[in-house]
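Colleagues,

For the teaching module next term, I've prepared a clean inverse folding example: a structure given as tokens, and then the sequence designed for it. I'd like students to try predicting residues themselves before seeing the answer, so please don't circulate the second half yet.
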């Protein structure tokens, strides 16, 4: 137990530059508190002391804001950063050196008994607010972006983001990981609107170019009218005709 706690403390220093001392980690990191209490509740669960295990996990949730079912299996050096709102279901399985940020849910999609929660491989990083749902598998070293909703398996080493999550090819060779948001592939309504406007502008430019080509065939001089700034003049076509 003490060796495992020592490893947990070391993992905090390795993954959180804000950690300054062992005393600070032991007293001020709810992820550490939740992990210690889960070890105890998980042991009670394996001894079939189900009510006592659930009671301890409930107390842990009250103290830390992190809900870990005592039946969940968690590997070594597990790190929860910030932690508030994290939910880990009964049949979830978590490998070694996994990192979860706040608001993460490892949930189920069925009321049937048996395996219904995700399995995370070694070294997985799950960004803030992400939801991984169902008895799916996230491979070793995979990364899940902020607010992603994952309902399918994620290959080892891949980065998934979006709703529903999909693999981001452009992130495969990216160094580092942003746990609070990933690139330009999120379902952001502002981003979608801007992309729509850009697409519409390109379509308008193509139509104007087609008009210019037709005018050239009619003998109208349009060379000076191809300046980009002129294309935004509302009297553009009138000037060409005149």
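(Answer key — instructors only)
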């Amino acid at each position: 137990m003490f060796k495992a706690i020592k490893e947990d403390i070391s993992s905090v220093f390795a993954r959180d530059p804000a950690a300054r001392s062992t005393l600070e980690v032991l007293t001020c990191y709810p992820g550490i508190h939740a992990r210690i209490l889960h070890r105890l509740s998980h042991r009670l669960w394996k001894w079939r002391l189900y009510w006592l295990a659930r009671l301890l996990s409930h107390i842990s949730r009250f103290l830390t804001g992190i809900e870990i079912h005592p039946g969940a299996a968690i590997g070594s050096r597990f790190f929860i950063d910030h932690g508030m709102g994290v939910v880990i279901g009964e049949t979830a399985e978590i490998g070694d050196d996994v990192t979860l940020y706040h608001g993460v849910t490892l949930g189920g999609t069925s009321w049937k008994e048996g395996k219904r929660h995700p399995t995370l491989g070694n070294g997985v990083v799950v960004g803030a607010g992400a939801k991984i749902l169902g008895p799916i598998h996230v491979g070793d070293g995979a990364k899940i972006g902020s607010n992603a909703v994952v309902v399918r398996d994620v290959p080892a080493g891949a980065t998934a983001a979006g709703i529903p999550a999909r693999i981001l090819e452009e992130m495969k060779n990216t160094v580092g990981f942003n746990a609070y948001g990933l690139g330009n592939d999120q379902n952001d309504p502002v981003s979608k609107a801007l992309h729509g406007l850009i697409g519409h502008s390109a379509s308008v430019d193509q139509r104007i170019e087609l008009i210019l080509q037709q005018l050239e065939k009619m003998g109208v001089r349009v060379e000076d009218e191809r300046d980009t700034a002129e294309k935004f003049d509302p009297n553009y076509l009138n000037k060409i005709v005149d």
